[in-house]
Amino acid sequence: MASGEDDDPIIEEIDVYLAKSLSENLYLLQYPVRPSTMNYDDVNHLAAKIKPKQQRLELEMAMDTMSPNYCRSKGEQIALNVDGTTYDEGNTYAVKMMDKQTFSSIQATTNTSRYAAAIFRKGELHITPLNGILQMRPSFSYLDKADNKTREREAEREGGDSSQDEAEEDAKAITVRFARPESEQARQRRIQSYEFIQKKHAEEPWVHLRYHGLRDSRSEHEKQYLYCQSVDASQNSELVKTPKEYLAMLMPPQAEEKVVQVAGPSNVLSMAQLRTLPLAEQVKTLMKNVKIMPFANLMGLLALGTDSTAVLRCIQQVALLVQGNWVVKSDVLYPKNTCSAHSGVPAEVLCRGRDFVMWRFTMVRSVMRKEVTNIIKLPPEDVKEFLEHVAVPRVNRGWEFVLPTDHEFNKKHPDIAHRQNMLWMGIQSKLEKVFNFSIEDFMPKNSPQPDAVHISGEQRLKMAQERAQANQSSLKKELAAKRGISREEPMDTTPHVNGSVNGGLDHANGTGDAPSDPASSPELQHFVNTIFRKHFVLTLSEFKRLFGLHVASRPAGEVVVPSVSDFMLQNAILQNQCRQIHVPFPAQTKLEADEQKVFCMWNTGDDSDKLRHVLFELFSKNYRIKRALLLTKLSQEVGDIPKTDVDRLLKECCISSSGHWYLRGTCPS
To answer: Is residue 621 part of a domain?
Structure first.
């Protein structure tokens, strides 16, 4: 025997027999409103009847009217209300007193295949399957009879000579109408109706029964049928089941008793069900229902201990930042291939219109509905819906943004605020083309421009002299830096990955410029680090374009970096863990000079750095590569790499054209 079986030895073996004599007529009666210590065994049962198909049972039991707990006056009042003052054989209470009560059954369960009654005798266990489990509860049908009696009395008093009036009525013509043929759908609705079901139940006749007490001889006789009538071993096959199969037979899956969750209204969100979803789905569902929310409120709705960094990553997929608050994206509210519930306008048009409304609120606190409608040219119902998502109407002020500006979030997460600002710049450029407007159209005509400030002649002269001195000093530094780099290039001893020397890569990491150098300004350094961690590979032309958008997005009058040249931008790039890839372009290439200067993010601190190093080395030898060459080089330098990692590497740094892969921005048109 196994060691586990020694701890649980078999004490006794019991034979189990299945008795079927009473299986079709055996019911378990429960009395849920009565304690188990107060049973009805000794109560006089006056009548019993059953409807077998419905498993509906009614029992009439006598009440002890001589008990000190019985209120005689109340019993007489109930009998008077039910039967009235006249004596009739059909009266409910013959003794003018409530001396009995009726118990009516309801089914405790519709599936009794897992329930049986068992009886043990002489080392044998006999079980009989139950046909039904019924819960017996007091019936108050006598109250309905009392109400009917009351209505009859009132009708008699109000009727008067109604029978005589009816006799004197003139004959009236009768219109005969024929019912139209019943359709199949109408017939199904009629069959499933409550009235039809009640009618079918009423059609089944009652079967009257005779009650026998617990100690009655007939009860003892019927009790013998609970034992299996044939215990011959030749007629009872032995159970040849494994323990696992036997347990499955005893406790079958409860699929039929699973609780079906009721589907709530579409506008009701269950927080218990919400927290069973993945984090990304939780954020999307919340934003789709709430439309606009500060980040602090979003964290409060999520489970305690949720990582805020993960939430920030998820929220940027489904929402945009407007005045420090997160507003759900238009394509989340209006998915593709859908249309407006008000006007039937396609989702693509709705998204453009709503993006314009959100963009306006990134600039001002209040907008006028008429101004928006004149530009996006959408029905008033749709425009009102856009505004109701993020604003509230104010008297003489149009629609005001519903939440205050969350300056705290912008200060705590400047990188995200900057990224969202760049996204809005891209959205603005698209909206200007679609709706044919410019940013100057929204500047107040009567208010002075930000730069329209009166400056005296002396101040202008002083500012011109300062600009000339700054330009002269920056030019000197640029020339000195060029001479310094040309002298230091042959002495480059920067260590390389795996100890190899990559002749095609520029390994300069900065020249230690003084803090006054614009290339070392924190603003420019932060921009370079942020943009290269997002794009990984940029040409100088693309970097200059993105930097120009960044400068244009800053508030009016704020100077980001004073007069930065192309050389200073390159120097700033090389100071942020970036390197230049000297791609050997063909002589006949049509790329501009700035497009042939390619820079890459060299070190990010994660495992993907090694993969990018191998990729950049290949591009330092050829301006285009094949995927097979990359896979071979990766297997030699790094080892086996999952296909998903290779796909992500190519997607982040390259574009495909005519079967070859090019670094981003270097593919010939």
So the answer is: yes
- Count: domains in the chain: 3
Of the residues 426, 442, 458, the one at which a domain ends? 442
pTM metric for this prediction: 0.36
Contact 322, 367 (CB under 8 A): no
Query: Which of 36-40, 134-138, 173-177, 182-186 shows the lowest per-residue confidence on average (mean pLDDT)?
Result: 173-177
Chain Cα centroid distance, residue 518: 48
Tell the residue number behind the tokens 């295949």, with chain if given: 113
Closest CA to 513 of 564, 581, 560: 564
For residue 183, give every residue at least 6 positions away whose Cβ sits within 8 Å of its Cβ, in sequence order, or none.
none
- Angstrom distance (rounded) from CA 1 to CA 389: 72
Q: DSSP letters of 258-308? A: PPPPPP--TT---HHHHTTS-HHHHHHHHHHHHSEE-HHHHHHHSPTT--H
The DSSP-derived string for 45-73 is EEEEEEETTTTEEEEEEE--TTSTT--HH
Q: How does residue 329 score in pLDDT terms, banded at 50, 70 and 90?
A: very high
Q: pLDDT (tens digit, 9 = 90+) per residue, 258-313?
A: 444 444 445 555 677 777 888 888 899 889 888 999 998 888 888 888 888 999 99
Which SS3 state, helix, strand or coil, does residue 328 take? strand
**Domain span at residue 299?**
276-442
Residue 204 identity: E
Q: Which of 149, 144, 128 is nearest to 223 (CA)?
A: 128
pLDDT digits (tens, 9 = 90+) for 2-61: 555 567 788 888 888 888 888 888 999 999 988 888 888 888 888 899 998 888 899 998
First to last CA, the chain: 79
What tokens were used for 149?
Answer: 């009696």
Tell me phi and psi for residue 39, to 5 degrees. -90, 175
DSSP output for 586-629? -TT----HHHH-EEEE---SSTHHHHHHHHHHHHTT-S-B-HHH
Residue 330 lies in a domain: yes
Concatenating the DSSP letter of every residue in 213-225 gives -TT-HHHHHHHGG
More confident residue, 344 or 407: 407
Q: DSSP letters of 436-458?
A: T--GGGGS-SSSPPTT-----HH
266 within some domain: no
Nearest to 390 by CA among 345, 360, 415, 412: 360
395, 414, 442 — which closes off a domain? 442
Answer yes or no: do 285 and 363 share one domain: yes
- Write the CA distances from 119 to 14, 125, 223, 225, 327, integer angstroms: 12, 6, 10, 11, 68
* Assigned domain for 466 exists: no
Question: In 10 A of CB 360, how many CB atoms?
Answer: 21
Provide the b/e sequence for 544-566 (b: ≥16 CB within 10 Å).
Answer: eebbeebeeeeeeeeebbeebee
